[in-house]
Recover the amino acids of this structure.
């Protein structure tokens, strides 16, 4: 029975949207600090950071530097969840800063596609504002 529940949960989870990726200057820590500063300066709330690299190291595995920033703005996220509460599965927004073979990258899911599997109006004004914010944050994190 447990396998059936796990399989059902996997089927109910939204698929990963297209990922935008940008090269960043400096180390993962440097780019991540720029990202967090940009998010906070924009007035968004940082809910959590996840250090994937440290987690892997703690498990005795090598992953390399990789940090996830989880953040949001109730003015933008609430209207989406008012249309479909299950959008909370992908909110708040997230951005990943990671090292791939010596190059630092900033990555995030494309907003419009992130919400494709939810019952929300494709023309919500907040989607454009979210996309603009993510692009601005990525540019700031990249150091360009």
């Amino acid at each position: 029975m447990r396998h059936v529940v796990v399989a059902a949960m996997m089927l109910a989870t939204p698929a990963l949207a297209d990922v935008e990726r940008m090269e960043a200057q400096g180390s993962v820590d440097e780019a991540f600090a720029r990202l967090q500063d940009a998010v906070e300066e924009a007035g968004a709330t940082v809910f959590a950071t996840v250090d994937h690299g440290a987690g892997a190291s703690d498990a005795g595995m090598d992953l390399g530097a990789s940090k996830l920033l989880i953040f949001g703005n109730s003015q933008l996220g609430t209207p989406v969840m008012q249309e479909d509460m299950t959008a909370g599965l992908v909110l708040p927004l997230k951005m990943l800063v990671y090292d791939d073979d010596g190059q630092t990258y900033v990555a995030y899911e494309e907003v419009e596609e992130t919400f494709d599997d939810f019952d929300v109006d494709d023309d919500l004004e907040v989607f454009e504002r979210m996309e603009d914010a993510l692009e601005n944050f990525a540019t700031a994190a990249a150091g360009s």
